[in-house]
Amino acid sequence: MKNISLGLVILPLLIISCTTERIDNDDSIGTLDSKVSAKKSEKSAGVGQNLLPENPANVYDYAGKLHNELLDVYLAGNYQYSTILQISEQVQAIAAENEDVALLNSATNVSALNSATSIPANLEEIQEIIDNPEGKLDNLLANSSMTDAAKISLYSFMNATLLWEDEDYEIIYQSIISYESAVMDSTEFNDEDKRVILTTSSIARYSIYYEKKRKDEDWDSNVGNRVGAVSGALDNSFIAIIRSLITGITINNLVTH
Question: What percent of the chain has pLDDT over 70?
Answer without folding.
Answer: 71
